[in-house]
Design brief:
With about 230 residues, the protein is α+β, with helices and mostly antiparallel strands. It has a single domain, classed as Nucleoside Triphosphate Pyrophosphohydrolase (Alpha-Beta Complex), CATH 3.90.79. It is about 25% helix and about 35% strand. Strand 10 and strand 11 form a beta hairpin. The two termini are about 15 Å apart.
């Protein structure tokens, strides 16, 4: 069963949920090993230190990677940010945001933001751990907290921030044929980023990169177990 497999993976990957329970103050001073800086210049991260433009401390944030359970069918819940937002308007993202002073750790931030953005009750989420933090080109250190979601709740998007809420089948995310890479010219260099074209939505950037990281965790574990 896929749920049991994913749970087992995170029992090994994030023992005692150390990553999920790390406070923002500590995470802000630790540069993640992966992020936009390493994907944008594959293989050149350690050759060009000047490319890492963000100074410490980073802006600690967290997102929830919500795996929705409907019997044996699993999907990933995502949001489309409101088009009028000045930052990342219209982009696809996980529920999440910057850590507040009252948040004890990354998990608290992810759960709070999910409730605020889509009305997902904390009691409907079974957190199983977190992946490594991801550094964005805008200076955020994002903790991807992973949890299974009971869909028995009313989705109410936060009007100021969320334009739409939708789900993508887990099988689509795990299929490596859907892990596409595109590039653009930005500040004098070629920048690379992951893309998942799905129906009318284009999932790209940090959200797509974290989905690829999740898929690799699951797929590599399955290959090793085979």
């Amino acid at each position: 069963m896929m749920k049991r497999l994913i749970t087992r993976i995170f029992e090994r990957h994030d023992p005692i949920m150390r990553r999920a329970l790390t406070p923002a103050e500590a995470r802000a001073w630790i540069r993640p090993s992966g992020g936009d800086h390493s994907l944008y210049r594959p293989g050149e991260l350690f050759k060009d230190r000047n490319f890492i433009q963000n100074e410490l401390p980073l802006k600690a944030s967290a997102v929830l990677v919500p795996i929705v359970e409907r019997g044996n069918e699993l999907s990933i819940l995502l949001t489309k940010r409101s088009s009028h937002l000045k930052s990342h308007g219209g982009q696809i993202s996980f529920p999440g945001g910057r850590c507040d002073e009252n948040d004890l750790h990354a998990m608290a931030t992810a759960l709070r933001e999910a409730q605020e953005e889509v009305n997902l009750p904390e009691t409907n989420v079974e957190v199983i751990g977190a992946m490594e933090d991801y550094e964005t080109v805008t200076g955020f250190s994002v903790a991807p907290v992973v949890g299974f979601v009971n869909p028995e709740f009313d989705i109410i998007p936060q009007q100021e921030e969320v334009e739409a809420v939708f789900e993508v089948p887990l099988g689509f995310i795990l299929d490596e044929r859907n892990h596409q890479i595109e590039s653009l010219r930005w500040k004098g260099a070629d920048r690379h980023y992951y893309v998942f074209p799905h129906d009318e939505h284009k999932i790209w950037g940090a959200t797509a990169a974290m989905l690829v990281r999740f898929a690799k965790l699951v797929n590599e574990y399955e290959r090793c177990a085979a």
